[in-house]
Amino acid sequence: MTALAVAALSCGIWIYLLAARGGFWHAAQRDDEPVPMFPQDIAWPRVAAVIPARDEAGLIRGTLAALLKQDYRGDFTVIVVDDHSSDDTGGAARRAAKAAGASDRVTVLAAPSLPEGWTGKLWATHLGIKHVQALPEPPQYLLLTDADIRLADDMLTTLVRRAVRDRLVLTSLMAKLRCSSFAERVTIPAFVFFFQMLYPFAWVNRPDRKTAAAAGGCMLVERQSLQAAGGHEAIRGELIDDCALARLLKRHGPIWLGLSERAHSARAYSSIDDVRRMIIRCAYAELKFSPWWLAAAAAAMAVTFLAPPLLTLRGSGATQILAALAWAQMALAMQPTLRFYGLSRWWGLALPAIGGIYLVFTVDSAYHHLRGRGGEWKGRIHRHATSHELPGHGN
Questions:
Q1: Which of 186, 205, 164, 148 has its CA nearest to residue 42?
Q2: Regarding beta strands 149-151 and 141-145, do their DSSP bridges make them parallel or antiparallel, or are they unpaired?
Q3: Shared domain check, 140 and 228
Q4: Per DSSP, which regions of the chain are E strands?
Q5: Share of the chain above pLDDT 90, in %
Q6: Domain range holding 97?
Q7: Could you report the per-residue pLDDT of 93-123, keeping only the tens digit for each?
Q8: Strands 76-82 and 106-110: what pairing?
Q9: How far is CA 377 from CA 185, 278, 374, 380, 382, in A?
């Protein structure tokens, strides 16, 4: 393929992304619009939060403090599932509940041994849900959240109002990730941008579209719909559990996903290597553990992100013009996400280099999988299983 053809292809890809990919780059699907429903118009349903936690003693206290300050008017309880932590996660959760004067509203469970075919987070979440389903009055909604997520005081009320008003089976917010260190400024806005590119939120939120995604840090789930869909057992081997849950539930009703300024993550990524470990855990799973999809993704990322600056700087004539136009479109597309994170517009020009970093992470993810270390997180390694290897599948 000639340089001119590559430049034209790159430019065409960015025209498509800006014009026909669900307007993902506008970052317009947010929770800041008011939900027009008066408190007297709703019978506030029971809600139980389930938090799977592994080695989260340093973060769980702040997360529980935020949850226990929610202004929600209905019955609200919290289940923390200690997933074989090597630190004092369970003890930290109990102390946080006691300090808030809410020991009666917080239950801390210890997860038993991880069964074959389950990922750790899904097993812990499943146990928490199983616990609340056995209560004399099970909750109507489950708030599935993570140990690092801090919610504004009115967040649960807002989530329930939206879910009830729109009859949603899944209401999810992509919490605002930390963006303070240099490594975070380089990688985090791009992570959010790429996620929206893969799963345009406007498409996720349309019942007539098959696109389904969610952000695992903040998901309000209608419990009976989850039960009807097969529960977490139906997705027990998934690494990208939030999107798997969204695909499962969208077959049972409408779902909604948006960005949020009022839910944020307290987890710090101090170095590029911290981000790398987060990405390589799941990147190859996104490609269905396929070397062919990996090759196709690498080629697509090279043409989409790497070719425009290279051909702008080294090309001439029409090749240079088309490549520069592709680079300019790339920088333009990044602007709403940069504004969301309060960063300079000039970071948009660095998107090709950042895309190259993510390409390296993706290849590294496949390499770790081939070495038998796929999905490694906090000392636990995930072994990918095909469907016929999982209990309850196959002949």
A1: 164
A2: unpaired
A3: yes
A4: 47-53, 76-82, 106-110, 141-145, 149-151, 170-176, 218-222, 255-265
A5: 86
A6: 27-269
A7: 999 999 999 999 999 999 999 999 899 999 9
A8: parallel
A9: 23, 8, 9, 5, 8
